[in-house]
Amino acid sequence: MQGNEACAQGAVDAGVRFFAGYPITPSTEIAEWMARRMPTLGGKFIQMEDEIASIAAIIGASLTGAKSMTATSGPGFSLMQENIGYACMTEVPCLIVNVQRGGPSTGRPTAPAQGDVMQARWGTHGDHPVIALCPWSVQETYSLTVKAVNLAEKFRTPVILLMDEIIAHLREDVKMPDPRKLILEERPRPEGGRESYRPFGGSAGQIPPMADFGMGYQCNFTGLVHNEVGNPSNDPGVTDRLIRRLTGKVESHRKKIIHWEETLMEDAEIAIFSYGCSARSAASALKAARSKGMKVGMIRPTTLWPFPEEAVEAAASREIPILVPEMNLGQMALEVQRVAAGRSKVHLLSRVDGELFTPAEILSALKGGF
Amino acid sequence: MPSDIIRYFRQETLPHIWCPGCGNGIVLRDFAVALEKLNYPRKEVAIVSGIGCSSRAAGYLDFDTVHTTHGRALPFATGIKMANPELKVFVIMGDGDASSIGGNHLIHACRRNIDLTAIIFNNYIYGMTGGQFSPLTPRNKRATTAPYGMIEQSFDICRLAEAAGATYVGRATTYHNQLLTRLIVEGSKNPGFSLVEAVTHCPTSYGRRNDLKTPTDMVRWQKENAVWIEKIRDGSASLKEEQFAIGVLHRHNAPEFTAEYLEVIKRARK
């Protein structure tokens, strides 16, 4: 199965029943798969006029209670940024898949890259919460898509799945779980009467329940700063409470959200910190290094945002050097450096030529001792 | 005068933010009267708006409402209607919102003939940002960004919608406000994309700069320049200079998008 297909299958198994998108390489297979399969499940697929319309449509669909998603790549992801902020501000769950390709601009549409890591964090304006996940295999694309849909529902926030061209077009054997056995999350919905319902209420970090359009709660959603019932407000106190509650939803639950994998870190004297397609080459390099007696370990985050600071601790607390191979000019490496705070020497290994790292070049960086 | 439309408002959000003399309150009232005449169960109605003076109207109404991003009300509404075709969806936009930043979405919503009722508050200007020209500002009129007069051609948004495939198109003004209510009612009953242009007046940002000093002057201008489409059709009137047609300007039958998709579901499940 192909990575893009695994993403689409995972989304459907997680309960996604609305897809809106616009053709763009290298994510188009997700839309094509959805166009075929969605109606067989009674779900809806629509090809919109552009990516701005696509994300607008999935936010609209989510307001009616449907689990919704779109899929795109760099240029389309750029176009979606304003409405990603809208979904953060109005707390509308949705999934945005960004299959990263070479940028900036049109760049290399068919070449892989990992250049959108910081855009996923800060692409939309203003302080806002972000959850972004990053798979390294077709199997993990399936499971992280399910997780992404669940997190969106649980925290009433958009979630970004940061794939890359390699993982999207890779074909691997996948063991599909029985979809009936998946644990699926649903957004919290109000139970009481309309008078006591506060669709944007609660204290820092709390996730207020969300009524579907048509349930009779008559809610107002606005991208303006709004009070607990959803009416616009210019009050400094209301503003401060809203922005802190929104960002706090993710920050105060970060331990439940973040996840990373450690390989042979117990006795490691050098650590590799890598994610997505780069981590595949890193894993091969690690194997080769170990066979030569080098004590190399690997930390592979599947959550990029919120940044899994605890994962860096595994290396930084022991003050061992950390190699960060990534297909950009150093986006995660700076985060690693920030958390290591001088305890570990952090070395960036970059590629921005549209070619995947070879295990040999990572091995040679390890050997070089940077 | 129907007295009961106040029940459709979120009274805690009033008074509204519009300037003294603004026509938007008249359009909003006419819309509320249309809702009263349509008498849909309240929970079956969704009202979507963009950004700008007119788009604040959605938040004053006590229904499921979404005040979206600038120009994007129609794709939000498309998602709502497609995900839940049972909902009666109204879309409130301004002239700049609908025809400039949202122009692409407008033609595609028309082309799909999705069952939405779009009400475009046309005051010929960007009011909220203080009077810049929009694609509907007529030639030679002044705006803060056209201080020497507008040199671009303006859109006729009704003809644009018709050409793009809308199945019901009408225009009224804040002077012809009973017509406006009738167009909104008929537009909502039309099973497809309906566009109602509501010519409204912005004394603060448009009238003052264009020799229409008071709201009364502006409404009088509407009265004098609006020509009933029936009179144009039967040859008893023709459009001169600034004049424009009002009434039901166009209607035709075509397949509606969400109904067509339900057929797709049937086909896919065979």
By CATH, the topology of the largest domain in chain A is Rossmann fold
- Characterize the largest beta sheet of chain A: strand count, sense, and whether it forms a barrel: 8 strands, mixed
Number of domains of chain B: 1
CATH superfamily of chain B: Thiamin diphosphate (ThDP)-binding fold, Pyr/PP domains
Can you identify the CATH class of chain B? Alpha Beta
* Radius of gyration of CA atoms of chain B, rounded to a whole number: 18 Å
CATH fold name of chain B, please?
A: Rossmann fold
**Which regions of chain A are unreliable across 5 or more consecutive residues at pLDDT < 50?**
none
Distance between the termini of chain A: 38 Å
Features:
heterodimer, A: 370 residues, alpha/beta, Rossmann fold, 2 domains, 8-stranded mixed beta sheet, 5-stranded mixed beta sheet, 19% strand, globular, B: 270 residues, two-stranded antiparallel sheet, 10 helices, 18% strand
Structural summary, described in words:
The complex is a heterodimer of chains A (370) and B (270). Chain A has 370 residues and is α/β, with parallel strands linked by helices. Chain A has two domains: 179 residues, Thiamin diphosphate (ThDP)-binding fold, Pyr/PP domains (Rossmann fold); 108 residues, Rossmann fold, CATH 3.40.50.920. Chain A has 13 helices and 14 strands. The relative contact order of chain A is 0.12. Chain B has ten helices and ten strands. Chain B has one domain: Thiamin diphosphate (ThDP)-binding fold, Pyr/PP domains (Rossmann fold). In chain B, the strands form two sheets. Chain B has an eight-stranded mixed sheet with strand order 2-1-3-4-8-7-10-9, sandwiched between helices. In chain B, strands 5-6 form a two-stranded antiparallel sheet. Helices cover 36% and strands 18% of the residues of chain B. The chains are: A alpha/beta (370), B alpha/beta (270). Chains A and B meet through helix 3, helix 4 and strand 8 of A and strand 2, helix 3, helix 5 and helix 10 of B. Strand 8 of chain A pairs parallel with strand 2 of chain B, so a sheet runs across the interface.
